[in-house]
Amino acid sequence: MSGLKKLLSIVSAAAVTVSALAVNVSALEAYDPYSYDRWGDPVASQAGYTAEKYVDGEMMGCGNFYEPSDLFISHDELLYIADKGNNRIVITDLDFNFKKEMKEFHYNGETLTLKKPTGVYVDQYTGYIYICDTENDRVIKCDTEGNVDMIFGRPQTELYDENLTYNPNKVLVDKAGNVYVVVRSVTKGAIMFDSEGNFLRFYGANRVEATAEVIANAFWNMIGTEAQRERSAKQTPIGFTNFDIDDMGFIYTVTDSQTVTTDLVKKLNPRGDNILDSVGAADMTFGDMPPTYYSIYSKNSSLTDIDLGPNGELNILDFQHGRIFQYDKECWLMFIMGGTGDQLGLFQSAAAIESHDNHIYVLDSRKNNITLFTRTVFGEIVTEAANLYNAGYYEESLEPWKNVLKYDGNYRRAYIGIGNALYNRYEYEEAMEYFEVAISRIRYNKAFEGYRDIWIKANYQMCLLVIIAVIALIIVYKQLRKRRKIIYPWEKRRRKGGVL
């Protein structure tokens, strides 16, 4: 296809332009920015974000952190830090100017202190602060002055196994005031309380992955005796690790297991159903893709935190590799940044992630600091294109997607974005070229069907004449055969031999 060759030549030229225009951005990073090509292999890419600086407690003016465990940015643009080792909550503005710390709390005339807090959340509707006071086995709900309104303790229900510990790790609140608490020892999902502190139910449990062992155990339990079933290993799901909530009330969860692939990232509706299962836009692979070769030498991602960006982006933190994976609201991979190490932009123990505007904040519990990432020019162009397309402005997204290819000729999402925009403009033949480069077979087939229908409509009369001519030739042929006007060579030989 001549158009495809022309497109590939444009891509080659664009790749050269990339080296000239944007190599300086990538060279500043301590890590090598990459993405995945159309075959699922990692390829060099441009940096969507650049590590601008890091800030520790001493630089903020609040004293050094010790094993900080969580971050939260409130709607009044304050940064809350759960400083686990120092038993406090530190509050700064988004420029890291120290505002105050919270160490003592007042409840019914009693003074409470924190013990290893691991989670913090601020309700945007009421302004109340929720703190996972982990080793005191409680979640504290208080105002900014430390006055405690309510304490969420161990659930008072027979559904909560008495042998399980209650060490709340993460907390969030929905519009109705319901409180969701993640406890590492609980595999049934988050513990859900109402606004009065009453236990409601377990919410959003992960599924048990259908491994060979699980299937085999199910088979033997089906045919075994009751005594054998009692002795068999019980299969339980792995509890999720962290979560975040969007403005519509959907809760997103991540699970940090390296041994399962089921329910690593979920989007839960109020019933606790994972509605990401019904999304077909993306491949639904989160974290690093498993390599085709040498997989025994690689380690899977361990997804430890998730944050929802201002445009619905998913910022997912990989503890194992110290990386941040950013996806758009349709779960298409946008950027990968970070890594493990001591330099700026790398992490030793990435613990929490938050975002605001065009910045990403990452907390390192071993370095005891926060790294600030800022979106690059390339990142702004990709974000603009993705936001326009996801909002339904297909034609408006066309030029931004083409601009993306000028920076990175390997950016597969741009080819699909351009192809989709052209498809929605009924330019099926051009869309086919971009889908072919992206190796998107389903989209290519849809574009081909549209192109075929248009071609048939445009050449309807010619097609009709050809069909009529073919039918006429068949009729004439059959008539001549009946009258013996057409005799095949082998029939002539048979006649000469006296057979006919």
Describe the structure in your own words:
This protein has 500 residues and is of the alpha+beta class. The chain has helices spanning 2-27, 57-60, 212-223, 226-231, 377-390, 394-407, 412-424, 428-438, 441-458, 460-482, 489-496; strands spanning 34-36, 42-44, 49-56, 70-73, 78-83, 88-93, 98-102, 104-107, 110-113, 119-122, 129-133, 138-142, 148-152, 168-173, 179-183, 189-193, 199-204, 242-245, 251-254, 265-268, 303-308, 314-318, 323-327, 333-338, 350-356, 359-364, 369-375. Helix 1 (2-27) crosses helix 8, helix 6 packs antiparallel against helix 7 (412-424) and helix 7 runs antiparallel to helix 8. It is elongated.
Key words describing this protein structure:
alpha+beta, four-stranded antiparallel beta sheet, 500 residues, 30% helix
How much of the sequence lies in strands comes to 25-35%
Radius of gyration: 30 Å
How many extended strands? 27
Number of helices: 11
Which helices and strands occur, and which strands form pairs?
Layout: H1 2-27, E1 34-36, E2 42-44, E3 49-56, H2 57-60, E4 70-73, E5 78-83, E6 88-93, E7 98-102, E8 104-107, E9 110-113, E10 119-122, E11 129-133, E12 138-142, E13 148-152, E14 168-173, E15 179-183, E16 189-193, E17 199-204, H3 212-223, H4 226-231, E18 242-245, E19 251-254, E20 265-268, E21 303-308, E22 314-318, E23 323-327, E24 333-338, E25 350-356, E26 359-364, E27 369-375, H5 377-390, H6 394-407, H7 412-424, H8 428-438, H9 441-458, H10 460-482, H11 489-496
Antiparallel strand pairs: 1-2, 3-27, 4-5, 5-6, 6-7, 8-9, 10-11, 11-12, 12-13, 14-15, 15-16, 16-17, 18-19, 19-20, 21-22, 22-23, 23-24, 25-26, 26-27
